[in-house]
Design brief:
The chain has about 350 residues and is an alpha+beta fold. The chain has helices spanning about 5-50, 55-75, 110-115, 155-160, 165, 205-215, 245-300, and strands spanning about 80-85, 90, 120-125, 135-140, 150-155, 170-175, 180-185, 215-225, 225-235, 240-245, 305-310, 315-320, 330-335. The chain is about 45% helix and about 25% strand.
């Protein structure tokens, strides 16, 4: 295996590791969004049942308060909540009362849900009017298209469970398929659109087009003036999680992997050499023991004698010395012709 071939294999492994890492984080974030979406769908079904039974809107509010508390406990966040515009009345599970100039029908969570076809849950990102926190809103219109229910999940909550996103030195972006920046590692471009005229011909437009076209895997991009790898994985609801690593950093990782693997090969070689030497020494020892046993067998035969024994060209001369049980025999071995 040549050095160049080995280097390519090591680089391929780095790229695969990068893709696996971003896919794992994308799966975690997608699962959180899916839990919220399923919760919202359930609440809407229950709310429709309450309305069909002719129950007062206060019962819907009680349901929203209960579900808000349950969801907050589940995701350990005090800024999430269930709310909606039900038959012309704003209902909030956090008991938030909007100001007089708050127009529900103009809010993104309401408009997107009303304009959507079928019962698909819409995702909107905005700064929450209640606390100013950057928030993901999951919303869906009722079958009558007169009411909308929504569930807020703060973007910062998603960051808790992503190793990639929690890493302060990591460069990452969450994009939708239209080029809108949902979240960003330093927050500077959140809410911008990389495919808009303002970014035409820039590194960011090129990055967005490449990752949207790829959707999964790794692409070569220019980021902050440096040649980089962009690792891409799809998120729930047509979002993309992008991790960006400059090639110089990846090369450092490549060198470390190569050094590590060489050390492993050397260690294995030393283990094999040691095992071979150990086996050779043990084999010699076994042969010596077998030879000694053969001599002792002859000695036992001549236990009560002293004399000379001939075995081909070797002469074994045995002398009785002291007591057999305590000292045994002194054996002199002479080699030569008879």
């Amino acid at each position: 295996l040549s050095f160049n071939s080995y280097s390519r294999l090591a680089q391929d492994e780095i790229l695969r590791s990068g893709v696996r890492a971003v896919e794992k984080d994308a799966e975690i974030i997608s699962n959180i969004l899916e839990v919220g979406e399923n919760r919202l769908q359930t609440v809407i079904r229950v709310t429709e049942h309450i309305l069909n039974e002719g129950s007062p809107i206060a019962d819907v509010e009680s349901l929203f308060v209960e579900e808000t508390a349950r969801f907050r406990k589940k995701i350990n966040s005090d800024t999430s909540g269930m709310y909606g515009f039900i038959n012309g009345t704003y209902v909030d599970g956090n008991h938030w009362i909007p100001s007089s100039d708050y127009k529900v029908q103009e809010r993104p969570w309401y408009k997107n849900a009303i304009q959507a076809e079928g019962d698909e849950v819409q995702i909107t990102v905005f700064d929450d009017m209640a606390d100013g926190i950057r928030t993901i809103s999951l919303s869906r219109a009722f079958d009558s298209k007169r009411s909308v229910a929504a569930l807020n999940i703060p973007l910062r909550y998603l960051r808790r469970f992503s190793k990639l996103v929690k890493d302060q030195d990591s460069h990452w972006i969450i994009l939708d398929l239209k080029g809108n920046v949902i979240d960003h590692h330093d927050g500077s471009d959140v809410g911008q659109n990389y495919l808009s005229d303002a970014y035409w011909g820039t590194e960011k437009e090129n990055l967005a087009r490449k990752v949207i076209r790829t959707r999964s895997g790794v692409v070569n991009v220019i980021h902050d003036g440096k040649e980089s790898f962009a690792f891409v994985a799809p998120l729930h609801k047509n979002w993309l999680l992008v991790s960006i690593v400059d090639k110089a950093t990846a090369t450092e990782d490549l060198r470390w992997i190569m050094v590590r693997n060489v050390m492993v090969v050397l260690l294995l070689f030393l283990v094999l050499v040691f095992a071979g030497l150990f086996g050779f020494v043990r084999h010699r020892k076994v042969l010596k023991i077998m030879k000694t046993k053969k001599i002792l067998k002859i000695l036992n035969y001549y236990n009560n004698q002293s004399g000379e024994i001939c075995n081909r060209s070797n002469y074994y001369k045995f002398y009785r010395w002291s007591n057999w049980n305590n000292a045994g025999y002194i054996i002199n071995i002479y080699s030569g012709e008879r």
